[in-house]
Design goal:
The protein is of the alpha+beta class and about 475 residues long. Among the domains are: about 110 residues, L,D-transpeptidase catalytic domain-like (Beta Barrel); about 190 residues, no CATH class. The chain contains eight helices and 21 strands. The strands form five sheets. It has a seven-stranded mixed sheet with strand order 10-18-17-20-13-14-15. Strands 3-2-1-9-4-21 form a six-stranded mixed sheet, with no helix packed on it. The protein is elongated and about 115 Å long. The protein starts with a helix and ends with a strand. The relative contact order is 0.16.
Length: about 475
């Protein structure tokens, strides 16, 4: 009945079945064309957006950073870390440091290892991603939970958004200062700070043909004896990579590869069984009094075999930024380059009863055509002026770290400390020849920290 009514209605309206089918076919065709055009437009839009993305440079982790060394200052009292580039403040982020039972050490450190997917070997493989190691005994900066107060086992927990970006720009050797308060880097100039040495080419040591470059440590003869730090103090400079007791995050670095064997004139030639014997050395003309016999120009000169050279017996010249440490306790200057000891020497300090304080000087930029270095300084405040730390976060259960006692004598300012120090001229000369941006000078009343060892710069513990 309904079909009949529908057919009668279409007949009265002038529509036949043929017309109706034409309408349906036209609608389907229009829908297909519209879909095709839409797909083509979508594809064209996608290609346009892809081209635009290629033209847009990749987003920098912290924007356009000033060109210069990075520095980080961790404030235990403020529970935050501040990132500096070329002495300029870039960004600050919240942190969570160690509790009184597992305190975060105070002092001067540098990044000695990085591990993107590090996990703890003590605390049930707890994730410590974006790890920046500060000591081989287990202190590091890494991603972690931030409850708003000190809650770690000695490490410095950082928010993911900050430490993941930090990971992209840091390199080994970046200086990290951990203090109770929040010391700020400042521009600093002093006549006793090192400047690059502009040595004329004529003064450079000559190189014999076939011997290759040799270390300047072997050719330079200092006016006073220079003692390698490792040989002078074996107990202090021992390998701290594998501690006696397992600690969090302790991982040994890769072993040093065996020395390469080359050839040099320093050792006798090695001849094979089928090689002709070497001709005996000719008698010098000075001994016989006769003119040496002239060779026929047509006679071929026999090829002399290159004598073997054992580079393991030669001193290895390190490379990279230089780290210098002046210790009032030990009355010495220690020098490292590329995490390796170079030399140490005794120094003189005026008014030894007066504290020097702890000051970190960082070489920022070469100026004046290579003849001067721009420096900045971080002076760590005296411990007695530090405010206590809230390590629990609640008012009812407030617990504070004890403040370290001090002897009542105010430490010297950075300028006063440098004025009191007399360095050997030969030490200044050698440091100036190795000086590059990123190098550092640490002046402190303290001695070499127990964490200072192989594959580290100078770790100075102020607590």
């Amino acid at each position: 009945m309904e079909n009949a009514v529908g057919a009668d209605f279409m007949t009265r309206a002038g529509f036949g079945w043929t017309s109706w089918r034409r309408v349906l076919a036209s609608g389907v065709a229009l829908a297909f064309i519209a879909g095709f055009v839409g797909s083509a437009d979508a594809a064209r839009y996608s290609r346009t957006q892809t081209a635009k993305k290629r033209d847009v440079p990749a987003k920098l982790p912290f924007g356009e950073l000033p060109k210069g060394p990075l520095q980080m200052v961790v404030s235990i009292g403020g529970q935050h870390v501040t990132l500096y580039a070329n002495g300029q403040r870039i960004e600050q982020a919240r942190v969570s440091t160690g509790t009184p039972g597992h305190p975060t050490p105070l002092g001067v450190f540098s990044v000695i290892e990085k591990d993107r997917w590090h996990r703890s070997n003590l605390y049930d493989s707890a994730p410590m991603f974006y790890m920046h190691r500060l000591t081989w005994s287990g202190v590091a900066m890494h991603e972690g939970v931030l409850p708003g107060y000190a809650a770690s086992h000695g490490c410095i927990r950082m928010p993911t958004g900050f430490v993941s970006r930090l990971w992209q720009i840091t390199k080994l050797g970046v200086r990290v200062v951990i203090a109770r308060n929040d010391p700020v880097p400042y521009e600093f100039d002093h006549p006793k700070l090192f400047n690059p040495s502009l040595r004329p080419v004529a003064q450079l040591p000559s190189v014999e043909p076939g011997t290759g470059l040799r270390s300047t440590l072997a050719t330079a003869a200092p006016a006073r004896p220079v003692v390698l730090a490792q040989a002078d103090e074996p107990a202090r400079m021992t390998d701290a990579v594998e501690p006696a007791q397992p600690t969090a995050q302790s991982e040994a670095p890769a072993a040093t590869p065996p020395a390469e064997v080359e050839t040099t004139a320093a050792t006798p030639p090695v001849q094979s069984a089928d090689a002709p014997a070497a001709a005996p050395a000719a008698t010098p003309a000075a001994e016989t009094g006769a003119e040496p016999e002239k060779r026929d120009p047509t006679e071929a000169e026999p090829r002399k075999p290159l004598p073997p050279r054992n580079r393991a017996g030669e001193p290895v010249k390190p490379s990279g930024q230089v780290a210098v440490f002046v210790s009032k306790r030990e009355k010495k200057i220690f020098v490292r380059q590329g995490f390796q000891p170079v030399f140490d020497m005794p120094i003189e300090i005026a008014n030894p009863e007066q504290p020097l304080g702890t000051h970190v000087f960082t070489a920022m930029e070469i100026k004046d055509g290579g003849g001067r270095m721009r420096w900045n300084a971080i002076s760590m405040p005296a411990e007695h002026s530090a405010r206590p730390i809230d390590v629990r976060g609640g008012k009812k259960s407030r617990n504070v770290e004890p403040v370290a006692a001090h002897d009542g004598k105010a430490p010297s300012t950075a300028a006063e400390a440098l004025n009191r120090i007399t360095l050997p001229p030969e030490a200044v000369q050698r440091i100036s020849e190795m000086l590059t941006p990123g190098s550092s000078l640490v002046v402190s009343d303290h001695g070499l920290g127990r964490e200072t060892g192989r594959y580290t710069e100078f770790i100075v513990l102020t607590q």
